[in-house]
Amino acid sequence: MKITKEKISQTAVQLFLDKGYTNVTIQDICNELHITKPTLYKYVNNKEELILDLYDSTIDHLVKDTYKLVDSDSHYQQLLIVFSTLIKDTKKYGYDLFSQMFIANLKENRHSFDMRDNLTKLCIIIIKKAQEQKEIHNLSNPEILYQALAHTFTGHEALWCIKKEEKCFDESFYLSMNALLEVDSTYQDLYKEYL
Hints:
With about 200 residues, the chain is mainly α. The protein has two domains: about 5-50, Orthogonal Bundle (Arc Repressor Mutant, subunit A); about 50-195. It has helices at about 5-20, 25-35, 35-40, 55-65, 65-70, 75-105, 115-130, 140-165, 170-180. The protein starts with a helix and ends in a 14-residue tail after the last helix. The mean pLDDT is about 95.
């Protein structure tokens, strides 16, 4: 088996999901991969580093696989698809891993929560189109609206981690999204398809 940082990260994340982040040691990861600690340390500096980019693969798939977006009935639905995909991965990884990612970034900004250019550009275009089609009535700058949505998402995610709730934050986020964008009444309940 060829060792790569991606393979180490995938293996570690699976162990974290199975046993809990704090219950997995560097030695456990090495044992699972059949490598030594010096080999692992050629690719990563510490355990925290293995969870800092949990969203990157999700965002890459979203931007590359735009067929889901093109197939939707409205631009607002396209936004729902984007955020429902992020929520789905958040649920998959759970509050344990996201709590650790928040902690790592609070110690030192590791840029896990920075805006990703490709997703930002995509969402700005979608918001502009939704404004033009009067699907959303908030006519503020689309870039500012997207940033507000992204920060709202992160805030809901952080509260979910703090409260350690089994139930995800998806409905409360979608309701916030409706309010922030001033979604047309025609689309107000569309989020329920993504619960």
